[in-house]
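USER: For my understanding, would you kindly supply a protein sequence with its structure tokens?

ASSISTANT:
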Amino acid sequence: MDATAPRRWDPLAAVREDERAGTALLDVFLSGQLFFDMVFTGLDAAPSPGTEVWTTGMGSLPGGIANLAVATSRLGLRTGLAAGFGDDVYGRFCWQVLSEQEGVDLARSRVFPGRHSAVTVSMAHGGDRSMVTHGHPLPVPQAELVGVPPRSRAVITELALPHGQEPAAAVDDPGGGADASWWLVAREQGAAVFADVGWDPSGVWDPAVLDRLDSCHAFLPNEVEAMAYTRTSSPERALVALAERVPLAVVTCGADGALAVDATTGETARVPGVAVAAVDPTGAGDVFGASVVLGTLAGWPLAQRLAFAALSASLAVQQFGGSLAAPGWGDIADWWAATSARAAAGDPAAGDLARRYGFLADLLPSGPVDAVRRAEATFALASDL
């Protein structure tokens, strides 16, 4: 190794006491479905039948669970991923980007011969997106793909009942059945479980889903999901209800920021969003969640965790594509330098941000480091693979 080469910034260096005893842990372990994403931006509106629409931007990149894997790795967390890859060019491209470019540990991932990658086409317009997806379930259950999870400080999972299972079966049988929850095994090994939840297209929003919070350290739904599952009429009331079920409850409110309660520290906090010109919201929630995990593992105050997460999510939506738009420490350092300069020049909006984010001066690396930055979403030639 070149001793003069910049070291990669490690925001958890101060808390890695276990490694001094020779035990190296992953910081975060993930498992889920991988997609090859094709993203189109610059649409005035969604395409209508019988028309052709030209866009001003396009990119191709790993998607799905890769959004979270890249977001955590970009922030300096040692990230492991268990996912199924197709053996087509799309799958090989995703493997290469995740393992070689982004430094994600794919030891628990598998390439399935003869299977094509799941593909999503995302069209960003009007501050939102429309998506078309094609894919097939993996030939093995997720629990078989993961096996016994590697030891990690944290896992991030989607809080949902496995298809066809009753709540009791899902929780009480972590070691058996095709849809057993690998993250329950990880929890028994000492990992803190950070849970999210997806949109319920059925409109039922079954409150039984929340029974699984008994096994979680944190829950980070958006305001619509939080209110729907708790049967409440405001994000504030939803947060109160969720805080009774889980140590760290966070409700995200899009551009309006987030609010949270951390029972382990006795803190409550609410932070506004950071106003930016949004290009593509894909993956912003994953970036927010990854940032909260980092701040929690590092022991930051709750308000700083939320503010850092809101900033990271705002940086992500300024570029198109979910995974490769995730900010690294280089992007955060660039933003802080530019904001501080504008504040010093008398810009009142920048001055407010500089006061709100003054804690970054103590978090950002002070010496020469390999500070990862966002990457352009492009697809390599087959010959490059």
